[in-house]
TrEMBL record, chain A:
Record protein name field: Chromosomal replication initiator protein DnaA
Pfam families documented for this protein: Bac_DnaA, Bac_DnaA_C, DnaA_N
Main location: cytoplasm
CDD domains: AAA, Bac_DnaA_C
NCBIfam families on file: DnaA
Organism: Frateuria terrea
Gene for this chain: dnaA
Gene Ontology, cellular component aspect: cytoplasm; plasma membrane
Ranges of residues in domain AAA+ ATPase: 140-271
Domain of life the protein comes from: Bacteria
Region (Domain I, interacts with DnaA modulators): 1-99
Described purpose of this protein according to its UniProt entry: Plays an essential role in the initiation and regulation of chromosomal replication. ATP-DnaA binds to the origin of replication (oriC) to initiate formation of the DNA replication initiation complex once per cell cycle. Binds the DnaA box (a 9 base pair repeat at the origin) and separates the double-stranded (ds)DNA. Forms a right-handed helical filament on oriC DNA; dsDNA binds to the exterior of the filament while single-stranded (ss)DNA is stabiized in the filament's interior.
Domain notes: Domain I is involved in oligomerization and binding regulators, domain II is flexibile and of varying length in different bacteria, domain III forms the AAA+ region, while domain IV binds dsDNA.
Residues annotated as domain Chromosomal replication initiator DnaA C-terminal: 351-420
Positions contributing to ATP binding: 151, 153-155
From TrEMBL, chain B:
InterPro entries membership: DnaA_dom (IPR013317), Hda (IPR017788), Hda_lid (IPR055199), P-loop_NTPase (IPR027417)
Pfam families in UniProt: Bac_DnaA, Hda_lid
SUPFAM superfamilies on file: P-loop containing nucleoside triphosphate hydrolases (SSF52540)
Residues annotated as domain Hda lid: 163-227
Domain Chromosomal replication initiator protein DnaA ATPAse residue range list: 14-151
NCBIfam families, alphabetized: DnaA_homol_Hda
Organism per entry: Frateuria terrea
Organism lineage: Bacteria, Pseudomonadati, Pseudomonadota, Gammaproteobacteria, Lysobacterales
GO biological process: one example: negative regulation of DNA-templated DNA replication initiation
Protein name (database record): Regulatory inactivation of DnaA Hda protein
Length: 443, 234
């Protein structure tokens, strides 16, 4: 760091709050030269703020310290070339830059493979399809669309397919990107009038993997461009893999012609993992991180945390950090004790009144009707679901639940639980409602 | 030529790791320190009431990472008027500390901007540190993608120091300056002045100088006089 700048910061430290200092001035890097001082901001936002609020004062202080006029030039960048990240070898970057063909950053995370993917009833179809596609890119299913809630493994499967394609054929040009990166690249291309290059870049891959396409909703120009890219890739049998947080037909503000294209290949739902799969995922992640976790602990967490895999991972990270710090093994008691805060946040939201309220909203019935004695089918079914959810998600007894539903008998509650369980096995629609409600209540 | 100054840049004094009085928060301190020192460590989410040391830990992490030559930026959302611009603008840091996360809950576009920022920092190999008054699931974040990502962090519920711990810290800090504070003075400070540790330590600094100048011990009458004269009011 420039010595002059260091002294300037020392002076400003007494004038500014710690917050201002860390937010705006510490991120700057400085270089002194014959003319004055060059300050590098990490991003335009910081640059603008510094210019607006602090630059005059900085110039005064620098002038006083240097004993002469000390003009400041502000720009976005870094005073030293940033060290290359380990993932990118400097040499290959240079070669790629020199070559006329555009570079292909595949952006794949090597940790996401089929080997590290924990399979269960909820995701085995998705896994099988992704593997098929990786074995026969462009031929098996095109496009392959994986859809389901957040944190259920869609991105993992997508990367795994990409990694397997590259493993089987090192020359295979795979490109993974998140939907907002596609949007960003397109806006940049429009701004710099490089649309031809943009088209070329995305159409010359063997497999294009785009994550979370629900974020294309409402972005008409992006959809238009993606539609053309899609057609070009599809026609020349290049593989397309996409993920979405719900069945694409249900995404609002997505063009009908794009929706219909998305349905040309195979769409597979990734469901929330069941109890056994959650426990297996936990054990697998623990092994991956080198954390000793018993099956009992895994089962405890899997029982309490149902929302998604990321919450499981957060719980495991938290547990590991504390066990490591206190030098204690992770027993179920230790897990109960140290995760009380964390588990409380999951358990807290799930109360019987909350279940009643959310179930009523979900089925669009009035809460007081749900709790009434009326037995029309449009109320009876939601009521039974709410009772079964209360049994599943809270520790209340059958009589307590019956009491909470307008003073019903415990056998009524038991009957509701059995009915709903049976329906979930036979009726796909019912199963979807059930799982969606569990997700809302525990998410 | 400009003469070399021997002292390293002084960061806000009381917001470094060594000034953090951990109390029940020792494990959180260790995890934040690990993240500040080793870029690959899991990201951390801190939550707790005001005065439990959230901002202190975030600023200390920035200081430590910056001292190790990493690019850092601290983003106190409650002090920023325009969240979306701030979040869209602050890429390219190796450690980003986002404070007062709760203020953007329910602001759909801002949540989305944070979600994009999260993904960007992850892709660039950087690290993030979050602080809020509540746990991720209780923040009221509408975007499930963001909520689940915050949920994947290592999480700590920070607890504020209790009165006994605050007294011990104040005594220890006074002793380090060569000042003796007896129980009567401590009682008086806690009931009449403030219970907030930062305010008390600030007062201690000023008292230190005043007692030195007046060549008097710090007693309750001295305190009364000092605060009445107005020099004790910040």
């Amino acid at each position: 760091m420039s010595d002059l700048w260091r002294r300037c910061l020392e002076r400003l430290e007494s004038e500014l709050s710690a917050e201002e200092l860390h937010t705006w001035l510490m991120p700057l890097q400085a270089r002194e030269d014959a003319i004055g001082v060059q300050l590098f901001a990490p991003n335009p936002y910081t640059l603008d703020t510094v210019r607006e609020r602090y630059l005059p004062r900085i110039e005064v202080v620098l002038g006083q310290l240097a004993g002469r006029d000390c003009p400041v030039r502000l720009e976005v960048g870094s005073s030293a070339p940033r060290a290359a990240r380990p993932a990118v070898a400097t040499k290959s970057v240079a070669v790629e830059n020199a070559a006329p063909a555009p570079a292909f950053p595949h952006n794949l995370d090597p940790h996401y493979t089929f080997e590290t993917f924990v399979e269960g009833k909820s995701n085995q179809l998705g896994k099988a399809a992704a593997m098929q596609v990786a074995m026969n890119p462009g031929r098996a299913y095109n496009p392959l669309l994986l859809y389901g809630g957040t944190g259920l493994g869609k991105t993992h499967l997508m990367h795994a397919a990409g990694n397997l394609m590259r493993e089987r054929n090192a020359g295979c040009k795979v490109m993974y990107l998140r939907s907002e990166q596609f949007v960003g690249a397109m806006i940049e291309a429009l701004r710099t009038k490089n649309m031809d290059q943009f088209k070329q870049r995305f159409r010359s891959v063997d497999a294009l993997l785009i994550d979370d396409i629900q974020f294309f909703a409402g972005k008409d120009t992006t959809q238009e461009e993606f539609f053309h890219t899609f057609n070009a890739l599809f026609e020349s049998k290049q593989q397309i893999i996409l993920t979405c947080d719900r069945y694409p037909k249900e995404v609002d503000k997505l063009e009908p012609r794009l929706k219909s294209r998305l349905g040309w290949g195979l769409s597979v739902a990734i469901e929330p993992p069941d109890f056994e799969t959650r426990a297996a995922i936990l054990l697998s992640k623990a092994q991956d991180k080198g954390v000793a976790v018993s099956e009992n602990v895994a089962m405890l967490l899997a029982k309490r945390i149902r929302s998604n895999v990321r919450d499981l991972e957060g719980a495991l990270n938290t547990l590991a950090a504390r066990a490591n710090f206190y030098g204690k093994p992770i027993t179920t008691d230790f897990a109960e004790e140290t995760l009380r805060d964390l588990l409380a946040t999951h358990a807290q939201a799930v109360t019987v009144p909350n279940i009643q309220k959310i179930t009523a909203e979900y089925f669009n019935v009035r809460l007081q009707d749900l709790l009434s004695k009326r037995r029309v089918r449009s109320l009876a079914r939601p009521r039974q679901i709410a009772m079964a959810l209360s049994k599943e998600l809270t520790e209340h007894s059958l009589p307590e639940i019956g009491e909470a539903f307008g003073g019903r008998d415990h056998t009524t509650v038991l009957h509701a639980c059995r009915t709903i369980r049976k329906l979930c096995e036979t009726d796909a629609r019912m199963r979807q409602d059930w799982e969606q409600l569990i997700r809302v209540l525990t998410g | 030529m400009i003469p070399q100054l021997p002292l390293a840049l002084r960061w806000p004094r009381r917001q470094r790791f060594e000034h953090f009085h951990a109390g029940a928060n020792a494990a959180a301190l260790a995890a934040v320190r690990a993240l500040a020192e080793a870029p690959g460590a899991p990201w951390v989410y801190l939550h707790g009431p005001a005065g439990s040391g959230r901002s202190h830990l975030l600023l200390a992490a920035c200081q430590a990472a910056s001292a190790a030559g990493r690019r850092v930026q601290y983003l106190p959302l409650s002090a920023m008027h325009e969240h979306i611009g701030a979040l869209r603008g602050v890429g390219s840091s190796e450690l980003l500390a986002i404070d007062d996360l709760g203020v953007l809950a329910g602001e759909r576009a801002a949540e989305h901007a944070l979600f994009d920022l999260y993904n960007q920092v992850r892709a660039e190999g950087g690290a993030m540190l979050f602080a809020a008054d509540r746990a991720p699931a209780q923040l009221g974040i509408g975007l499930p993608d963001l909520r689940s990502r915050l949920g994947a962090c290592t999480q700590f519920a920070l607890k504020a120091l209790d009165d006994a711990e605050r007294r011990a810290v104040l005594k220890e800090q006074a002793a380090a300056r060569g000042i003796g504070l007896d129980e009567a003075v401590l009682d008086w400070l806690f009931t009449r002045y403030a219970r907030d540790l930062a305010a008390l330590l600030d007062l201690l600094d000023r008292l230190d100088q005043a007692s030195l100048a007046a060549k008097r011990r710090i007693t309750v009458p001295f305190l009364r006089e000092f605060l009445r004269e107005g020099s004790g009011n910040a």
